[in-house]
Each structure stands twice: as structure tokens, then as C-alpha cells.
Amino acid sequence: MAFHPPPEVPLARSSLIPRKLLFGNPHAYGAELSPDGQWLTWLAPVDGVINIWIAPTDDPRAAEPLTRTTGRPITWQDWTKDGRFVLFVNDENGDENHHVFAVDPRTGATRDLTPIKGISAQIEMLSRQVPGKIVVGLNDRDARWHDLHTIDLETGERELLWQNTQGFASIGLDWQMRPRHARSTAADGGTRFWRIEGQEVHHWMDVDHIDGWLTWPLLFHSDNRRLLMKSCVGRNTAAFSWIDLESGAETVVAEHPRFDIQSALVHPISFDVEAVSVAGPRMAWSHITAQVEADFARIEWTLPGFEFGIASRSDDDRRWIITAHKAEQAATSFLYDRDTGTITELFRARPELDAYSLAPMQAVETKSRDGLDLLSYLTLPASVEGERPEKPLPMVLLVHGGPWGRDVYSYRGDHQWLADRGYAVLSVNYRGSTGFGKAFVAASEKQHAAKMHDDLIDMVHWAIREGIADPARIAIHGGSYGGYASFVGATFTPDVFCCSVPVVGITNLQTLLESMPPYWAGFAEFMYRSYGDPRTEEGRALLAERSPIHKVDRITRPMLIFHGANDVRCKVAESDTIVAAMQAKGIPVTYVVYPDEGHGFHKPGNRIAYIAMAEAFFAQHLGGAFEPFGDDLEGSSHEIRAGAEIFDLAEQPV
After folding, report:
1. Matching PANTHER family, A to Z (predicted)?
2. Model's pTM, two decimal places?
3. Close Cβ partners of 454 (under 8 Å, ≥ 6 residues apart)
């Protein structure tokens, strides 16, 4: 089987962008260079399942599959630091009990390095200073805590490095694979940091609840003495600093007055910081050192209008993999030769979309009702000229998960899909979203279904005032916390949205907190501080007040609910219970469960079926265009457990 170059796509297009081009398997993505720069690996389909491919860097068209898994897709891969193996992690059915696998790039032989049933393995360290080993966290001794083990990559031999009897949420290592610092949660939801010296543990510092979310040790310098730290202690936004662990001296590398520093580009050997990224309305690079200044200038000149990152670098730093995108183009991978200055396109994630007119994305900056700065992103159908439609459109409010995540300017298949069907699409960074400083996160404490939801409603009203949204045709849709927000929209503000589509959402905040995965134990106090404490009467009362399950009788508009049966974060019972309550009250509901998925739908057949059913639902209640089902439900495991009759419109024309 050979890797095919992007197809030659005709310029003619049908009336709609096919769902499978937006949400089916990507053509290729996730390129990584071997340490010597001579080989490329990336992710692409093999018989319909995402696998790892390999090719000489100088001849990508000579690629062959390195793996041939047939179950769940591989979503991450990277080389070991000695270049002997390629690693990936995977679970079986969405239960997040990941195992770590090593593949020999010469033979394709694949080994499970963590063959223990019922565990969740985490790769903790790959180091050029100890190239023949990796460090893996395993929770086989105690499901709540991960002990650290070294694994010899040649033999698979595993040796205990640190037994986590202290209950640390995370343990940091230097490049010699020595535990050097750790993190635990304080009783008030704040964070305690610890210094590790050999087998001795010493208290380092405490930070409060909000500082703890934005304060993290990142990585050591190659000297194993200085630690790169992301921290908002003493400031509102998170800065990057070097901390000398011997003297305690702090040297600030980069900070921004409004936005958190997002990420750092570090040298592959020394780990000197060469550039940092800041995500405001658009992502920008700053603190660009002289060593890479010319490179960044060349990339920006070659790829105007694109946002880009450096995904991989050879050890000699002569070859880089650049990943670039913009709203109208999905991720594209390039090989950059620093000696010649040439930037060569390797592949696009979705080259078939080149035949279609994709929609631009607008950054919108407004104020909440209590004066907070809100940054949102708006996509209108590609046919709309300018920043506003001629008349109000039906709109879908897409709510991001987390809630401690954020929306950014980017190519988004969901925005393009909905805009192509004739909808305005709005994504809001409500309070609690990260990237905007700790005060913005602090403003979300115990504000679920309250001020956090107010931010969403404020932006809906903004879209109505601006002539963007038809107030009678606005839907709310999202996954995880976005699923919770969709349930909240249907119960707390039932007159705002004409329909809702929650995905792997939360309906009962108390059961959410009482059924967290055991290895979230180090995160529990933070969750209690953020949502409400289920161990106290006051906390239980607050959680009940903010839970959609207790307001089912307010639901008056159609609802389509999706869930994965193996979800360990937001258990399927979250959706089961509200469906049962709605049925008991005679409230119509459609409910779809995937027995082989977890917190999201990763198998392409399942993903396409979910999109197809959601699209049919939106068409029925918002009036947009709809691509008939065709065979898009046939490769899916879904079970429609309630309300199947709504999909009778499947064969209606577009």
C-alpha cells in the first residue's frame, strides 16, 4: 500500500460540502521528524482507520504504513529520542485506559509496553540524555495515583522509579529522569508544590486556587538546574520564567499585559526559549531570538495570512516541520530546510476542500453585562459579503468544553459545516475560559448556570442586535461542558433557544463530582472549589440549584442528546437520567448512544453519523440546508434509544 498524494480536485462543486469531506478521516496530518532528520512519520488512514505512516524525509511519496491497527484510530505518535522506535498510545473502546505502544520503524513490529489490564498509562518523559528509556506513569497499584516507572525500550523491562504514596497529582522530572518536583492539591482547592531531592520531599510553595490553574512547571533546561515555569503569581496573566532551583532566582522570559503566554518554542538540545506564542484575537509570536528571527520572517513571508507552529525539529536543527492553517484551510504540513531556506508542502489534512468556498472567521470583542471583556468568534456563510448578512440568519451557538479551555481563530470543521448549511455560527469565550488571565478564570468560580451562562446569553443578544441572528431560530450545541451549557440553555433559559444538542454533557453536577475517574483524585479539591462541595449541605444545595436535571419541567423546545457509553468523565448516566425524566413527564426527546465510544466520537463512521443526525435536526428546527443521509448511518454503532421518528426527514432533498 502506497501513500497517495493529494488528489487533483475539480473546481466544480455540488450545492453542499459533503459531510465526509469535513468530518471523515483526514488525508494526512501530525508529521514528526526522526531525531536525525532522515525519516518522517505522520498519521493517515489505512483501510479506513488512522494509522502511522513512514517515509524517507527526502521522498515522502515512498511512504508505507508503519502500523495497521484496525480498532480505534491512533491520534498521537512520536519518535523516541534515540530514533529506534516510534511510540503511540491508544485505548480499546473510549474508556481512556490507554496503553503505550512501541513500533520498530525497521520492521513494523509493535509491542505493548504497558500490558496491564484496567490501567491508565501516561508517558511522562522522553529524554535525549537517557535515550534508551522512557518514563511512564501507571496506576496499577492504586487507581487514584500514578507511580512512575522507567521502561527499557529494547527489552520492555519495567523498573519502579517513584512510588506515589504521597498522592501527588503530577511529578516533574529532569532530563536525567530524576524526580525533582511535584504538585498536589490543598484542602481549599489551591496548589501545593514540592521539591524532591533523592528520596526526600520538601515543601516548596503554595499558590491559591486561581493561581494554581495558571501556574505550572514546564521543563528543565539542559543543565537540569533551571526550570521553565508558567506562572501568574504576582501578576494577572501567565508569564514564562526560568527558575533557578538552587538560588530561587526568577528570570522572566516573556509576559503580556492582557493575554497569557500560550506556548514556547525551545531549542531541541539546549531547551533555550527561542520564541513564545500569545493567543489574542489571532495567534502571534513574540520574544523571537536572533537564532530564529530570519526563519520566522521567511515563514511569515511564504505563508501570508496563516497561523503556524513548529511541530518538530531534527536534533541538528537543520530541518523543521511547520504546521499552518487559517479559517479557510485545514492544517497543512511543510518541510522547512534551514540551510537552503526552502519550504516544501508535504500534505494537507483535507485537500478535497480546495474545491469549495470556505468561510472566513471574524474575531468579535465585546463586554459582558458586568463589564468583562469577551472575545468570541463568528463565522457566516461564505456567500455573505462583508461582516454582516443582509437579513438575520438562523444561528448555532457552539459552546466549548472544559470549561477551562478556549476558542481560538482557526480552521474549524464544525464552523464550516454549519455555515455551509446557511447558519451563522458563534463561539464565545465565556468567563472561566483560559488565556485571558487569572481574573477572568476567578470570575467563573461557582458561576455555572449563572454568570457563565449569562456571558453566552449576552452574546446571543449581541448577535440579535447586530442583525446577525434571527431570534426565533437560535440553537445551542456543544460537548462536555458545552453539553452541560446546552442542557442549561434548555432548562434555565428555555425561551432563548429553539432547540438544543448536548453531546457527552452533564445534567447533575453532584453526580459528576461523585463519579470522577479515580485518577482524578488530585484534581478533586479544585473541582469542589470551582463547582460546589458535594460533601457539605451548602455545596449540595448549590450543585442542585445549578443542575439541569432538577429543572426538567422547564424544557419546552426540541432536544437531541448524544453520549458515548464508555465515557469516564461525564458518565452516560448523566444523559440517561434526564431522558428518563423527560419521558416520565411526556416531554419529547431524541437520544443517541454509541456503545463503543467514550468522551467524544473518534471512529469515523460514528462521527459521520452523529453529524448527519445533528444536521437533520438543525434543518428541521432552524430551516437550513440538509444533505440526505445516504449511507452515512451505515458504518456507525449508534443506538437511537428514544425519538427515532424525527429522522423520517432523512430523504428530503437539499
Report:
1. DIPEPTIDYL PEPTIDASE FAMILY MEMBER 6, SERINE PEPTIDASE S9 FAMILY MEMBER
2. 0.94
3. 368, 369, 370
